[in-house]
Amino acid sequence: MAKIIPFRAVRPTRDKVSLVASRSYHSYSADEQEARLRDNPFSFLQIINPGFKYHKTISGKERYTMVRNRYQEFKEEAVFLQDPSPCYYIYKIVNRDGLIFHGIVAAASVKDYENNVIKKHEDTIEYRETLFKDYLKTVGFNAEAVLLTYPDNPELKNLIEDVMRSRSEYEFTTTYRDTHYLWNVSDGKIISAIKKLFTEMGSIYIADGHHRTASSYLLAQDYKSENEEHTGEEPYNFFMSYLIPESELKIYEFNRLIKDLNGLSKEDFLIKLDTFYRIENRGQSYYKPSKKHHFSMYLDGEFYSLYLRMNLYNFNSALDALDTQILYSTILKPILEIEDVRSDQRINYSNGKKDLVYVKSLVDSGDFKVGFGLMPITIDEMKKISDEGLTMPPKSTYIEPKLRSGVTIYEF
Hints:
This protein has 412 residues and is of the alpha+beta class. It contains 13 helices and 21 strands.
């Protein structure tokens, strides 16, 4: 029984939304950031990079305080407004690849996260949780929604389609050629209907934003301990989320790149692989796996297909059947001696949108010795991992859609 509620979003005025909206801070190169900060005074980057106006890099608590100050300035200058009553927000994205996403921006309950109604499939790193919690507590708002996914629901789909027949509050196209639309839902009957449909769902899954969710939970615990009149309904008990149906979630793989063969010659490496895999040399012909438990490998100017010897591998859980785990258990750990795929500097990752041409180019450049291509994980695999209380290896999924920051903002 999920508690997904409307909220009073702080958001840009209609005439400035295309200028305010920005990608995730870390997705910009240094040159891109500087250009946007220099040329666009309304970019949300101005808020989260407050030291730019002083030509100084600022970090830690000082930066958090300045972020809050910049945010307040945007409100004072009427770049942002706040809706007078709680709303759901229907958000549609049409990306340049032709993919279309329809979802609802709403507030999700940290209690549901605690009680495993909102389920996770990835581990989080404690220091990152605490760091972001401290950031949220200082700035007082969150501008990046957690991506949640729910089982396809015909009634909810019909409600969303009915709302989208009216004129959208926002319609803007980014320089990446993605078009964004947003509709406010303030009608009491529609709000009640949406809220009821979510309460009938047994489970909702985190698709992207595990650290943001965990940090929001920690924040709520802090505020609860400080509030003698805590009721559980305060804004800090919820976090901003973007909920889309499972059928619209687009999951890409993360391919693996390794810097060396752990002291092995090419021939000895292939012999060790032979224990768990049937190997075919495909020469310079690109090979992308088309089935689960098949892998592509690019080594020394040639592509190989690796077929798992099923009779030699034990499938005891949903995690054991995951290709990222299979690769780790049969190659990365025992042969290449990469124990911690989170921190080992010998491994890197390339999301599947860049394909194996990109992997090949990095190996050919000499930066890496070998590259592995995988099949994307499915939504059913992701759910099985969550339902069994397990977690995937890091960089198992690259998920779309990616929302822009600053379009809707949730205040605690």
